[in-house]
Amino acid sequence: SYELTQPPSVSVSPGQTASITCSGDELEYKYASWYQQKPGQSPVLVIYQDTKRPSGIPERFSGSNSGNTATLTISGTQAIDEADYYCQAWDSSTYVFGSGTKVTVL
Amino acid sequence: QITLKESGPTLVKPTQTLTLTCTFSGFSLSTSGVGVGWIRQPPGKALEWLALIYWDDDKRYSPSLKSRLTITKDTSKNQVVLIMTNMDPVDTATYFCAQSLTTIKALDVWGQGTTVTVSS
Fold first, then answer.
1. Percent of chain B with pLDDT over 90
2. What is the pLDDT of residue B4?
3. How confident is the model at residue A93, as a pLDDT?
4. Are the beta carbons of A43 and B62 separated by less than 8 Å?
5. Any chain B CB within 8 A of the CB of A63?
6. What average pLDDT does range B99-111 have in this prediction?
7. Helix H or strand E encompassing B7
8. Of A52, A95, A99, the CB nearest to B52
9. Which of B67, B96, B83 is nearest to B3 (CA)?
């Protein structure tokens, strides 16, 4: 079955840029999405189809996807961005989630 | 406004069958391109996709759990039901349902989740 790999944790200083990677075989063909989940809350879609932001998601969230790696970038990271982030691929009309990355804003 | 809400037992015994219901509003499961998926999250662990049902009744399952899962829909009631057989303590998790759109290939609106504990 298809697998996605993420780093367990990423630390970033307020105002700096955080980059979270997601690796999977030929991921560039699988429409990567990203979800933000804060403690005790449901996940929120922040990026879909590699680069698109849903309505209401701040512009500081952006995505890219090339080869085997998708990347979520948070520019000008704020304290409120501290959360777990999950990548997701669309594979054979099913969903696959990554292992999740905890973003800590120091 | 689109909303989804999960309901079902909070506690089940090992070997029992779990039945969860997702009741939604703000969209129709008879609309082309629309689906409802189930996802779970064990305490402190990652999200795991379980199953998905589409507007045309096409059904997809996680390969690792396929033998234990059944997903159905009742379009008139705006409900999707997930049945998981032979429950085990490792199935203890928060179970979410979410709207799936084939146009964006993502789960764009999630329910609040329901916690299920498997224990004797």
1. 97
2. 98
3. 85
4. no
5. no
6. 94
7. strand B3-7
8. A95
9. B96
